[in-house]
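Practice problem 4.
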């Protein structure tokens, strides 16, 4: 230990000629003097001070209050609803020491009880129903529609994040609805254009054009493009209904090829080759020579197939009589393309005088030469 002696002069200065540096004797030490001796310890000799660990317990002898235990590692800073103290007159005050929530009753005596370290008013906080509700909401959660004052900071942050999500959702939903409305308005404008195009009358058979477009799953824009192409003659719909086919057949049967061609050019009906493929008349097998049994049966079935249902619907029929009158034929030579035989020659001389089978052009010349010479004749009637 090191001592440092200091002298403090409190009286007036010594007179001149007096030596103040002389040593002090033992007898002089007992005499009161203006000099004071102070002992100061050196820093090396001082012992370091150790601080006591922090804990939520207050000083000995003082009430420790009611400690609220939170489960699931919850922090009182974010879980406890501090705003309730401004809204309600709660019978306790709060303190957070080292992450532990401690409540002190307003009637706390500040001194420990006779048995426990908590006074009786602070012990009574355990049975407080309002406090039990707060602890229960902290542990098990709180309803979303509960007033904000009952929420802790963490609960308020969660509600704010959820509200931001709802706002963002509705904002994006509004943008999507605006886009949908704009798209629908554009589609309505296209349909209005289509109505104006139909009313212009520039395209015939608009129903066929729409039918073809819908069959190809085309939208309104594609239909408008087809309509514009049809208006300038670059597109012609080829879809025909059964009614249109029957009209074309009627014109062909009544007026022949010329009237059928007129219907195609003027009314947009089927062309003549197409009308021939749509014919509903069953084909009759012609015979260039003596008819065979197979040909006769096929012709009978083809002729009466369309009326069999009517005949059978009349009830039980035992027998039926079929009568034919003479059928006149146009006097000209025809060619059976299926069997490649000439038709329209009299049966009495045709198969005897010339060959009716068509192989090359010489066969045709031979047939017309026989007609000119009178060896064979044109057929005037059709026999069954």
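Answer key:
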């Amino acid at each position: 230990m090191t001592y440092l002696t200091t002298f403090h002069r409190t009286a007036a200065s010594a007179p001149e000629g007096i030596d103040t540096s002389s040593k002090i004797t033992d007898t002089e030490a007992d005499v009161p003097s203006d000099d004071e001796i102070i002992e100061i310890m050196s820093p090396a000799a001082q012992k370091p001070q150790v601080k006591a660990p922090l804990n939520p317990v207050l000083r000995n002898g003082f009430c420790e209050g009611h400690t609220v235990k939170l489960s699931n590692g919850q922090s009182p800073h974010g879980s406890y609803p501090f705003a309730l103290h401004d809204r309600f007159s709660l019978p306790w005050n709060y303190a957070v020491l080292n992450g532990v929530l401690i409540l002190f009753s307003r009637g706390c005596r500040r001194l420990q009880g006779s048995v426990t370290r908590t006074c009786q008013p602070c012990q009574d906080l355990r049975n407080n129903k309002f406090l039990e509700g707060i602890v229960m909401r902290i542990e098990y959660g709180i309803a979303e529609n509960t007033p904000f004052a009952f929420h802790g900071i963490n609960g308020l942050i969660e509600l704010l994040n959820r509200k931001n999500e709802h706002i963002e959702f509705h904002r994006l939903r509004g943008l999507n609805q605006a886009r949908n409305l704009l798209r629908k308005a554009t589609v309505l404008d296209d349909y209005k254009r289509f109505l104006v195009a139909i009313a212009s009358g520039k395209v015939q058979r608009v129903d066929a054009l729409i039918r073809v477009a819908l069959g190809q799953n085309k939208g309104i824009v594609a239909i408008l493009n087809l309509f514009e192409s049809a208006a300038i003659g670059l597109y012609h719909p080829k879809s025909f209904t059964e009614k249109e086919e029957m009209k074309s057949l009627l014109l062909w049967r009544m007026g022949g090829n010329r009237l059928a061609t007129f219907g195609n050019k003027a009314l947009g009906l089927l062309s003549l080759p197409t009308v021939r493929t749509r014919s509903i008349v069953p084909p009759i097998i012609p015979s260039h020579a003596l008819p065979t049994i197979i040909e006769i049966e096929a012709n009978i079935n083809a002729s009466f197939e369309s009326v069999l249902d009517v005949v059978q619907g009349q009830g039980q029929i035992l027998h039926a009589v079929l009568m034919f009158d003479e059928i006149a034929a146009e006097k000209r030579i025809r060619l059976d393309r299926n069997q490649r035989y000439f038709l329209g020659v009299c049966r009495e001389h045709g198969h005897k005088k010339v060959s009716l089978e068509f192989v090359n052009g010489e066969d045709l010349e031979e047939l017309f030469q026989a007609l000119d010479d009178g060896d064979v004749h044109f057929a005037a009637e059709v026999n069954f």
